[in-house]
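pasting for the record
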Amino acid sequence: MKIRAILFTVAFSAAGVYPLYGQSNFTARSVSLAGAFSSYARGVDALGWNPANLGFWSQDEALGEKGTRSVKLPSVAFDLGNNTITPNWISDYFGVGFMDDNLKNQMINSLPDNNWILLQALRVPFGLAVNNFAISTGLEINGRIASHPSMFELIFNGLRFDNSLSLDGTGEFEAVIPVTIGYGKEFYSIFLNKYFDRVYLGGAVKYLNGLNRISTEFSNSTLSTSKESINIQTTTTLTSAVSGTGFALDLGFAARSGEKLYLSISVNNLFGKINWTDSDIMSGSVNFTVDELNITELDSLFEESNTTDETTGNVNSAYPGYLLAGFHYQYRPNVSLHSTLLQGFSDEMNMSTTPRLSLGSEVNATKWLPIRFGISVGGLEDFRWGAGFGLNFSKFHLDFGISESGGMLGSAKGITIALEQTFYF
């Protein structure tokens, strides 16, 4: 029965149904600005961007904050993307009616030679900010799957004689509830205050409560056919873990020069790691052949042609770290310009060592209606654009953001939607 579980997991992963990783900590306003948010994040939003921004609470008139205390009500942000498929791609291959062999092969050849990658992330954050302090928590669901393009060939062309298909692939899923406490304060330095009017330092500690982690890896996996038989080979490792705990640290620096320029730099998720104490690791290999003489003996063939090993123990997973640097320039009272550079420290999960540069702007059409837009280049996505707006009432702000990655509209490979609500008192 264990080998059936392994083979089912192969098919399940190849179908691309695991949820996957998206961009780093994102909110409705950061999505609208395509990530150009590090020097603009305030209150609860400062956690995950730059905790030093919490020090601005008493000298932040330029940002038009409604109060020094705020509650981020339960909000939601969702990201879904991949590295190939776009609306135009779907229309070209699935909007033509009947697909002949030439069109199928053209579609399969359009996929990357290595892996088709699907990315997704979900955030449900909420928290409280009072003066220099902020605390936040919420649900983070992340994952990543990579599937060999041969799976598309199997789906659309079926099994064909004298053919060999690769079943290699990987999948990851992780659900975490981080609890973050941050503090930011103005700091006087004889050296730094020669260049900046005000200087701020901040830090945040994250307790990482891991709910569940699943990872799969399929290597040296093939499906070979001939006129007489079908051969399946796979080496699989499936890890399932619950009850994880860990910690991470954020450190930030922020400064204000004059009345219009704000600078920001932070290092996030230092030492971030989750230790999963209740884990089950199952590894196995299969190498069996089915032909017309033994097709009625599949159960015994499965048992005779596989080896499995199951162990329990601790599993560690990284909570990827990254650096953010940027500025916010208050061009006019109702127009601000923003920039952020994101640099990941590893190529794990949703991070990339390829830097991403984001540029954005917020325009207050009226006092209660800010309109935001931005673009970014680099990183995992190569290109991203975003847009959104807010409804700023006296004590309540409602923000909406939408963003696309890898292209625009018909050529987009991913989409992010976020809704955020904040109460000021």
